[in-house]
Amino acid sequence: MIVLDTHVWVWWVSGTQRLPKKVQDSLADHRAQGTIRVSSISVWEVAQLVERKRLELTMDTEDWVARSEALPFLGFVPVDNRIALRSTRLPDGLHADPADRIIVATALTLGAKLITKDDRLRKYAYVETLW
Asked: Cys-Cys with 39: which of 4, 7, 58, 106 at CB 3.0–4.6 Å?
């Protein structure tokens, strides 16, 4: 199982960013298995970016998310109590951004690899990443 950071989800679904070959290969493998996950906090992040005009989608945000939800190989992970608590108790070394902390906590809770370009997350020793 893999968890996509928000930017990877947006780039992959939108096809607007060239992802490294090893990321593409991992996405293809996990797509075939139906084991690609996105934290629901990423929906919040996308909506915030659109509202602040820092991200432009080709359609309304709700429709864009609904199309992602309809993909049979992609699942969304709600921010449940276990993930919320874990995000506040991560070992030292991760910055304070709440969305990043929830995404990391989601990956750790699922025992999944995190796909991210974010150097801060890739340098965090307690979560396995790929880029």
From this structure: 106
User: What are the extents of the domains in the chain?
Assistant: 2-130
The model carries a pTM of 0.96
Task: Enter the CATH code of domain 2-130.
Answer: 3.40.50.1010
DSSP secondary structure of the chain = -EEE-HHHHHHHHHT-SPPPHHHHHHHHHHHHHT-EEEETHHHHHHHHHHHTTS---SS-HHHHHHHHHT-TTEEEE---HHHHHHHHSPPTT----HHHHHHHHHHHHHT-EEE---HHHHT-TTS-EE-
